Amino acid sequence: MRTRKPSFFHNQGWLKMVKTGLDRILSEEEFLSKLKGKRVGLLVNPTSVTSGLKHAIDALQTAGVNVVRLFGPEHGVRGEAQDMEAVDENFDPVTGLPTVSLYGHTYESLKPTPSDLDGIDLVLADIQDIGARYYTYVYSIGLMMEACGEVGIEVWVLDRPNPIGGEVVEGNVVMPECKSFVGMQPLAVRHGMSAGELAHFFNRFTTWKCELKVVEMRGWKRSMWFDETGLPWVMPSPNMPTLDTAIVYPGQCLLEGTNASEGRGTTRPFELFGAPYVNAVELGKELRVLDLPGVAFREVSFRPKFQKFGNQTCAGLQMHVTNRDSFRSLSASMAILGAFWKLYAPEFAWREEAYEFVQDRLAIDLLLGDMVLRKGIEDGHDCVELANATGAGRQEFDARRAECLIYT
């Protein structure tokens, strides 16, 4: 007689499955009874799935929920658009449901209008965040909260794990002059919060206020990495293929603010980095002498298939995280920026094109959140020290964050 091997959907045999907010509302009558008779809008993307990989749209409709409209963040409801690519959605191609894009051609498109919300009684927001303040999905949730608050619609945020854990906090907070869609609120770079905790933060300390309910997870501990939750990894965006990518992203996203490649257009985005003007051996030597914790660098050549240096050969390095608990992405990537500036300026330069709807600020300033940090790199200051100098506003963020933590 054949014995059935444990499958992924049986918790991989050794992991205790974390129960997401979505799985809770589908399995607990307390929630389903409150949804019955409501006209529901969904803010969703490809990560909005059950632990069995059924999409929230289908699962909720099967459960009898009257889904009347979909809202899609950056990359779209189905996630096919690349970064900073305007999404034009009117109907979902799978279900035929009317769809509103919250990432169009203008800054104003990021927030739903009253007419977008017309005929809706309640909005469910269910999107997997990454744990870094540049990742725009949490701002889409916040702007949805603000829009719904203005017209008296309740919002439920269906919580999911922070994939890089909820204990470590890294970096400074965004200064007002550097506010943008990659930093709309004064959050630390690596904020150490779940989307539900951030929703409480927005509702309590910002203008993004509404009648809010966070459907909390069950079984999540702050010390967990995503691969310890028992949940399936679904790419949150086209260039976030693995948990390895998410681990390096809080620092490596800074390379978007430069003319060096952050590895987009390759199969290891954000782990690979370089440019045609780089000497890989020289760059590796410059970084290894710093003896950064939890990371090793390997010389590589790569050829992006799109975006920066598309179809051109770049020399550079691959970042290999050897100890994810001691690794600090922001410190490592600030060191990388410092090495590029020291070795390759003026060929290495800051991006000057418009970035996330902002034209009058350098992209690197928007990402760093404080122009002092960019000037420190240019002046040759110790970049690891710059990364660890939390600056104005971090103490206030830490205190506010502590008030909003759910899972302690």
UniProtKB/TrEMBL annotation:
A Pfam family hit: NamZ_N
InterPro entries: NamZ, NamZ_C, NamZ_N
Domain Peptidoglycan beta-N-acetylmuramidase NamZ C-terminal: 247-407
Domain Peptidoglycan beta-N-acetylmuramidase NamZ N-terminal: 40-243
MF term (GO), any: peptidoglycan beta-N-acetylmuramidase activity
Protein name: DUF1343 domain-containing protein
Species per Swiss-Prot/TrEMBL record: Microvenator marinus
Organism taxonomic ancestry: Bacteria, Deltaproteobacteria, Bradymonadales, Microvenatoraceae, Microvenator
